[in-house]
Amino acid sequence: MEMLSITCKQCQTVWEVPKSKKGGQVNCPSCGLANEVPGASDAGWFYGLAFGGYALVGLPLGVMTVICMLNGAFGTAICSGSAFAVLTIVLLFILLGS
């Protein structure tokens, strides 16, 4: 397992933590101060991809639903609105299940 070296901001103690702690906080083994572990956490990637995918696919379907309703194309509005609702529910399951 890869390790990262951390230096305490208060007492300058150096110790190693697992790479999986990136983006989080760890307590110094010497003085107990909470120190941030540099680097982006994997959770940031997860949420970024989840919301980015929704923005690329889900939101255009929602806009298309509104446009179709305004133009009187109710069949297309129902179809795109249903797809929008399904994608929204999938996003919620992804976020609540993580």
What do you see in this structure?
This protein has 98 residues and is α+β, with helices and mostly antiparallel strands. It has two domains: 3-36, no CATH class; 42-97. The chain has helices spanning 42-71, 74-97, and strands spanning 3-7, 14-18, 25-27, 34-36. Strands 1-2 form a two-stranded antiparallel sheet. It has a two-stranded antiparallel ribbon with strand order 3-4. A hairpin with a 6-residue loop joins strand 1 and strand 2 (14-18). Helix 1 packs antiparallel against helix 2 (74-97).
Search tags:
single chain; two-stranded antiparallel ribbon; alpha+beta; 4 strands; 2 domains; about 100 residues; 2 helices
Number of domains: 2
What is the number of E strands? 4
Strand content: 15-25%
**How would you state the average pLDDT, rounded?**
89
Tally of DSSP helical segments: 2
Topology order in helix (H) and strand (E) letters: EEEEHH
Unreliable spans: none
Shape: rod-shaped
Q: What is the terminal-to-terminal distance?
A: 24 Å
Radius of gyration: 22 Å
In which range does the helix fraction lie? 55-70%
**Spatial order of the strands in the main sheet?**
1-2
Q: Profile the largest sheet.
A: 2 strands, antiparallel
Q: Which structural category do the helix and sheet elements fall into?
A: alpha+beta
Topology:
Layout (H helix, E strand, L loop, with lengths): L2 E5 L6 E5 L6 E3 L6 E3 L5 H30 L2 H24 L1
Helix pairs in contact: 1-2
